[in-house]
Amino acid sequence: MTEHKLHEKYDRLIAGAKQIHPPSVAVAHPCDQNSLEAALDAAEVGLIEPILVGPRDRIEQAAASCGRAISALTIVETEHSHASAERAVGLVREGRAEALMKGSLHTDELMSAVVRSDGGLRTGRRLSHCFVMDVPGHDDPLIITDAAVNIFPTLADKVDILQNAIDLAHVLGFDPVRVAILSAVETVNPKMPSTIEASALCKMAERGQITGAILDGPLALDNAISPQAASIKHLTSPVAGHANVILVPDLEAGNMLAKSLSFLAGADAAGIVLGARVPIILTSRADSVSARLASCAVAALLAASRRGEPAKAVT
Q1: Which end of the chain is less enclosed by CB atoms within 10 A, N or C?
Q2: 192 neighbors 184 (Cβ within 8 angstroms)
Q3: How far from chain centre, in Å, is Cα 81?
Q4: Domain total for the chain?
Q5: Same structural domain for residues 38 and 154?
Q6: Could you tell me if 269 and 134 lie in one domain?
Q7: Spatial distance between the Cα atoms of 17 and 32, rounded to a whole number of angstroms
Q8: Claim: this prediction has a pTM higher than 0.90
Q9: Would you say 245 and 174 are in contact if contact means Cβ atoms under 8 Å apart?
């Protein structure tokens, strides 16, 4: 068995992102030690150039509590978290920021500013979340989608969710992009809607409605990522046993899968929201330093891709 260095995939990801020009990132309401340090750590290693958006006194108190200097950073002052979200989005619309980063406000508060019809950051694509997972003992990074934004996505929603993830996989250098559409079984069962949607998505990819990847589904998790399990089930597709992108049936399944990998298998999970005008970095208080840096690295690579700056493959 191949020995795997802990977080080696994230090490490559972060190293690749450090080779490009760091994007300016509007950090919405970094008013506690955890969220402020996430931005400062990423800035110190050259992944982002943060613009701190929030009440100046609270940001300075958070910096003092963790012994960090912020005098060289730009602070855009606001009165409260709602205003911080609105102003951070405004910095993107003004061209002053290439990405957003969640601070110590609620995710819903930030996302409500993003999706506003007047003054938000919506595009023609549905917003969705991707975890880029570094799983010890697994050869490749895994993208899991959607485990944080779309609760019960429709078939039409899943087209956008898939395309967002596929586009991200290309930026990260996945070659080829192999998508497993997850269910509990690998056969189409009329009593299980996720299996029917999986087969429909595969047909849509055949007809060019989803591009840039090889799709297979429905697949159960074991035969999506384990060559041995796929062989036992006599599955002979290019995806079975070798998936690097996993589309889950709904948010509950995705959240349970990602947290199971994190807390039972020692995996790290870098989180990013796609489908808006810029990438949106979502970090959690439970995230490791490595996962926070990796989230910023993913956003940096996406920002570089949008401005046409070539980046070395990092997977």
Answers
A1: N
A2: yes
A3: 23
A4: 2
A5: no
A6: yes
A7: 26
A8: yes
A9: yes
User: 142 with 152, same domain?
Assistant: yes
255 and 159 together in one domain: yes
Cβ-proximal residues to 179 (8 Å cutoff; 6+ apart), any chain:
162, 165, 166, 213, 214, 215, 216, 217, 239, 243, 245, 246, 247
Could you list the residue range(s) of the whole structural domain that residue 89 is in?
1-122+277-310
pLDDT at 310: 65
d(CA 81, CA 132): 28
Q: CB neighbours (10 Å) of residue 248?
A: 25
* Antiparallel, parallel or unpaired: β 280-281 and 245-247: unpaired
Peptide bond into 30 cis (omega under 30): no
Our measurement of the distance from residue 112's CA atom to the centroid of its chain's CA atoms, rounded to an integer in Å, reads: 18
Q: Quote helix, strand, coil % in the chain, to nearest 5.
A: 40, 15, 40
Q: What is the CA radius of gyration of the chain?
A: 19
CA distance 94 to 97: 8
Strand 142-145 versus strand 128-134 pairing type: antiparallel
pLDDT digits (tens, 9 = 90+) for 237-268: 999 999 999 999 999 999 999 999 999 998 88
**What value, to the nearest 5°, has the Cα angle with vertex 54 and ends 148 and 18?**
65
